[in-house]
Structure prediction request, 222 residues.
Amino acid sequence: NAGVTQTPKFRVLKTGQSMTLLCAQDMNHEYMYWYRQDPGMGLRLIHYSVGEGTTAKGEVPDGYNVSRLKKQNFLLGLESAAPSQTSVYFCASSAINRDEAFFGQGTRLTVV
Amino acid sequence: KQEVTQIPAALSVPEGENLVLNCSFTDSAIYNLQWFRQDPGKGLTSLLLIQSSQREQTSGRLNASLDKSSGRSTLYIAASQPGDSATYLCAVKYGNQFYFGTGTSLTVIP
Prediction:
């Protein structure tokens, strides 16, 4: 039972480069989320999705884009990476009825 | 907007001690509250989920309570062990989103 899987686990980018983070869940969950975790700031919501084909902005969406073309996948894109986007990124999913959140193991991104 | 606060930010206790971690939130219109554990460099592991209609949940040495009207939850850890050392996070489901506290870093000294 894989649960929530994030790819890649580590990445170093140069300022201005682009990349896509992939989140895959095998629990048939409707809701999926992308968070970033920074020291002293806790987890902050970037974007989320309440179902296939839908996306919505969270607390800190600037500089990021997302897509949910398939129910099991939620992609987070950085079009032009900035050092301020150095962070640990977590993906989570939840079902509608129980609302318990399940998290991936995180992606540690460094922008130099 | 929902705001979640956890006190204390850090806690150090000797092995075997019982301890309480606190979580407070500003808007009581939550769907549920969830406690997580996070080890250094790792993801979040769910410990307990309390639905808004419930008062407490128990799992082994862990007991979580919820007082929705006062905007508070506590996580009680009995007979602490060095393996309990980690950061503990609480999160509330509010609307379509989960809001997190900044966590309590727990160290259990052998």
